[in-house]
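Re: your question about 5-carboxymethyl-2-hydroxymuconate delta-isomerase

S., sorry for the slow reply, the queue was backed up all week. Below is exactly what I fed in.
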Amino acid sequence: MRIARFSIDGNVAFGAVEGDKPDELVVDIIKGSPYVADFELSGVKVPLSKVRLLPPVIGHKIVAFGRNYTEHAKELGSDVPDVPFAFFKPATSMIGSGDAITYPSFSEEVHHEAELAVVIGRMCREVPRERVKDVIFGFTCANDVTARDVQRREKQWARAKGFDSACPLGPWVETDIDLATANDLTIQCTVNGQQRQLGRTSEMVHSIEDLIVNITEAMTLLPGDVILTGTPAGVGPLNVGDEVAVTIEGIGTLTNKVIKRG
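Result:
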């Protein structure tokens, strides 16, 4: 099931996206929260074209893992970490598909990073490897937008990766992908229709299981929290006016334009 979060006529809701043709997609509004077991569909359906897609989660935190693809680490001149290397992006950095990435005033080199995002479905801590599949709600597309010059200049990545609009997510959460499949999906990024990144999640140094075991050793994850799993090689610059799209097999396409911060 594809779970979207959207606004229409000033109201915000979750809904199940139905249909196969892009111009015929509809959203069946969910009663309450999709994170509640046995949630109900209302039967009230709205054309997807009539709503504004929002980030598909209401997360408390975004845990991101860096240098998790060997070739990406090499292109940045970095070593591949022996253990997962985590950092945080604030919830205020999230935007939805169709929203604008605002170019930060303190950077002159902003890059795209296409990533598979894991959405947590239940409160969990110290998750054993064999139980990882039980805490996952679904998967979505992410763009770990990065002020690369600031990342190089500052030891902490809070500003480089945490500025407003630095975490596009969407277009929805796909809940029907199992863990084995998620560990081997095609992921790509285009800018103005030109391919920049192309890889497979099977190229990750540390698997989805590794990442969730690692972070839950340290902290509790809550429903709606997001895990970013790293980016394949091919990251590159974004400029004002560009349209960047992240497409992941079996999930969909996350599209955002870059604008100048007003």
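The domain at 2-53 is CATH 2.30.30.370 (SH3 type barrels.). The radius of gyration is 17 Å.

Happy to talk it through on Thursday.
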